[in-house]
Amino acid sequence: xxxxxxxxxxxxxxxxxxxxxxEAHIARPADPSxxxxxxxxxxxxxxxxxxxxxxxxxxxxxxxxxxFNAVRDTVSDKFVTTYKAGLPRPTEAELEGMRK
Amino acid sequence: MNAYRIKGKxxxxxxxxxxxxxxxxxxxxxxxxxxxxxxxxxGVHLVGRSFKYHRPRGILSAGSEExxxxxxxxxxxGRFEPNTRATVLEVFExxxxxxxxxxxxxxxxxxxxxxxxxxxxxxxxxxxxxMWPKSFWNKVYEPFIRGAAGLGKSxxxxxxxxxASRFAHCDxxxxxxxxxGLAAALExxxxxxxxxxxxxxxxxxGSLLSETNARIDGASGWDWLKAAxxxxxxxxxxxxxxxxxxxxxxxxxxxxxxxxxxDHLASPPEGAPRERLWKVRAKQVVLAQGAIEKxxxxxxxxxxxxxxxxxxxxxxxxxxxxxxxxxxxxxxxDSAWLAAYDLAEAGAKVAAIVxxxxxxxxxxxxxxxxxxxxxxxxxxxxxxxxxxxxxxxxVNPISRNGVxxxxxxxxxxxxxxxxGWTPSVHLFSHTKGKLDxxxxxQMFLPGERTEESRCAGAGNxxxGLAAALxxxxxxxxxxxxxxxxxxxxxxxxxxxxxxxMGVSSRELTTDRNASKAKAFVDFQNDVTAKDIRLxxxxxxxSIEHIKRYTTNxxxxxxxxxxxxxxxxxxxxxxxxxxxxxxxxxxxxPYTPTTFGAFAGYNRSELFEVTRKTPIDVWAEENGxxxxxxxxxxxxxxxxxxxxDMHAAVTRECKTVRETLGMFDASTLGKIEIVGPDAAEFxxxxxxxxxxxxxxxxxxxxVLLGEDGFIRDDGVIGRITSDRFHVTTTTGGAAxxxxxxxxxxxxxxxxxxxxxxxxxxxxxxxxxxGPNARKLFEPLVEGIDLSEEGFPHMSVAEGRIYGVPxxxxxxxxxxxxxxxxxxxxxxxxxxxxKLFEAGQQFGIxxxxxxTMHVLRAEKGYIIVGQDTDGTLTPEDAGLGWAIGKSxxxxxxxxxxxxxxxxxxxxxxxxxxxxxxPNTVLEAGAQIVLDPxxxxxxxxxxxVTSSYWSGTLGRSIALxxxxxxxxxxxxxxxxxxxxxxxxxxxxxxxxxxxENKRLSA
Lengths: 100, 999
Ligand SMILES: [Zn+2]
Known about the structure:
The complex is a heterodimer. By secondary structure, chain A is α+β, with helices and mostly antiparallel strands. Chain A has two helices and six strands, in the order βββαβββα. Chain A has one domain: Folate-binding fold, CATH 3.30.2270.10. The radius of gyration of chain A is 15 Å and the shape is globular. Chain B is elongated. The model of chain B has no long low-confidence stretch (mean pLDDT 94). The site of zinc ion has 7 residues of chain A, from loops. Chain B: This is Sarcosine oxidase subunit alpha.
């Protein structure tokens, strides 16, 4: 069971308090009707499926209830960082600093 | 009897005899004995038959790595457990045990014929033997496999024991309380860190318990141990858990410990849990798991009486038991010589020490010579004899260039072997920590770590008491420092320890035909060296494949004594170095663990929450039969005396349609959506348009996933301009709220909307039937209930019986209907009042079954029953609920994808069977042509099917490819026994003009 830091509660909590929310930084298109079928398919179904660094969403569902983003290594299962929803994705340089 | 017990020797309490039985024979042991030590004290070596060949087997080890000595234990009152290792099972007064894998008796076993049919059962026998001929499968192979499958007998009654579980947090967790672990715990404990120390055995000490020579800081090992245990017990920041096995090492230093609490007690305290599963989150972990001795691989190495030399030494020094009067030692490692010395000094006639190494250290020979033990260095073991116990060993000299000299046979009653030691890296391996191959020691050692952990002692390849103490102390101090405490490792002075060296041997060479040798590698799964070589010859090169093909290391012992032997034999056969062949992955649990420990408190009524409505108690008191609906239990129907389900449901339906029924709808999910942007939020979430919905009106809403498929539905009422009362399906409540929160928080955070679950705040009583209004019109205050003032699909706030209510006019039956929401705590009172008042109309309470029948008669769908996550609103006949002019809503874009527009999509239709008395089975498949060849083309399935008392016939809903265009067509439903025919019709079977809604 992982320990996850909620960036809103600013506290580490056990995984049972959280729900996984799939890949992060996939914004719903402002007007889906302008997308081709192919583009809409990609938006709906195509995901990075990263081996290694993965940007993903979690929800502190049994805590503050907020969605937030996390960077997790899918090989080691280690979290690099978590950050509030709406913030930009950390750069590779920033992540490298956090891994140390 | 205890003929093999040495008076006054060992740590068992020889003043406290304990009577127990094995296979119906009564024996005596002493407090502190394991079943294995007590049986050996009585001269019993034969304890079981092997799994595949039913070969007689004895006790191999003295610890949790035991592959052979598995027994069934019966502690009375249904407390039966198979496959308990005799080497860890503590005896107590009245313990009953039985051996396994034999019929009719341990000594005379019919299944031993398998041993003669060796060729049938070699590597891959599961895959090869049972392939052919096909007709043999049902009659011969399957019964044989089922008969042979599984070790031991399963318990036959539910486990009467209780199991506890507990979370714990600490600074330093030390696994293993041998010398390394004790030193680590002492250091961390002295630093003030919160320390937990666990050990699988009944007492602390590990290898110290079997060590009688060495002295630590001038004290005997046992005196040092006593002082260390006392110091730990006195430290308030240290928790010591014995009989607690660390079974798994998970992410971020979470370890599972299974602690055995009562299995060793003759009369456990009333209500005491049998085991406790600890989930420990530690800042730092020290793994001091020790090492496991390797068997030697040679023909006949599995006879009862053949055991690990270290185990024989444990039985002698710790339990005061000589494992034989005339033992022979065969070894490639110095440590076995110590067993020979100790046994000789205890009065056994050690017939010989056979060491495969041409040369051994002089001090070893001197001591053996002094004890009068014959030494055969540069000799090897090539066979054994003895049916139910080893009687002799065949040995040969090998010259330096590998030439075998003539064989000699040495009589013996025990054969003690040692092929060196394997560090226990299991828990380290659970963390995906890298293992490094040590060629010299022929072992894997912990390499780069992935967690905040350290390995110390023999488990880290640091063999010997002095090394273990030094490394343990250092690991404990470092762990404490990393956890934020000040510590410095103490040093220990160890005397009397001799350096122990050895070589790691492959399968011992032989002068005889190696392909006929029964040289066992995995004792529990009966895998021989020959099986492994055969697997390699047949093309398996990776250890993971060899393991699965031969089943080496796949038994309940996870290959603790067999993995490395299997690996080096495979590596020789593949002609690649061992690390290139690889070590199989260790997975939790380290030792077999009861289901009870994992389940803990989560069983019976605590297995899952049962949610109950405020009206549930009334339903129970009034004879309701219940059914589970998601986590809720709901009243299913209310039988009157003498009624079966069919009669009760038919009566309930009739009463609702003719006069009045009441239904507890409290389980429906309810979400209050509040805020200036509430209507806009609903516009974006639901298919329907909400902006123009007037205050006091409600509307049926459909919720899609972004993929365009129906996720949920429900009636939504506008209470005020900025406040909506949303209902969801019973099972979908939490899911829908989570989905709404997701969109609100992450896609449209600019919307001023707040979502609140109000499912449990409101009790909901549905009043349905032509007399509904008549019943409660006089009871309601503040709402104009007239047809004009409160038409169908209205909502208003007022009072009923003086209690605040949110009153909906809506119908899930097709009759005039109202849903009375009252604060949950008034639910039962209002229900009872309405029931009382309703007697004048012959009111009936009805359950979910009647609700289902009535809604099906009207063609109202149930999401999740009539839909399955692949139906669009159009497919389900709900196209009218789509706000066509809305620019966007969740799922809208998907509805115009080409696949969504195909004419042959499955569509919801009604079915009327040709025989009106036939009620189809929900889930039954539908075909167009019943005479086509198999496999038939299935075009859909029945989603709902009931007997309709109202219509006097059966009705069904179904999804059928292009179904609506097939209206009037006949379809076929093949069922066991016969194929039914039915006609496709519309989905509304009753009152299609909806006249009764206002009747
Ligand atoms: Zn939080």
